[in-house]
């Protein structure tokens, strides 16, 4: 929410630009999904890292929604950004940081 205020609020041109940048990032990820999958597959094979214990490459691939249209991706970005705005978990984490480390957000 603080960053949205810095950008001029949810209705500002900068906020819309921010959402557009996120959307373009998602499109680039989609364009490069094969390379990303390949790299993650190499890292996950015989890895003892906890993040790969129950790792499923097909589930990981599905998260890229390769068959989605650009308009579906745009709707996803809108949803993700809107859900993250003033999110309860983020606000609680900010409070924790303030109390434990004196970090004001």
UniProtKB/TrEMBL annotation:
Q: Quick one: signal sequence residues?
A: none
Question: What are the TM regions of this chain, as residue ranges?
Answer: none
**What SUPFAM superfamilies does the record tag this protein with?**
Protein kinase-like (PK-like) (SSF56112)
Query: Among its keywords, does the record have Transferase?
Result: yes
Q: What is this protein called?
A: Protein kinase-like domain
Domain PI3K/PI4K catalytic residues, every copy: 1-89
The source organism is Pseudocohnilembus persalinus (Ciliate)
Provide this UniProt record's keywords sorted from A to Z: Kinase, Transferase
Kindly list the GO molecular function terms attached to this UniProt entry.
Answer: 1-phosphatidylinositol 4-kinase activity
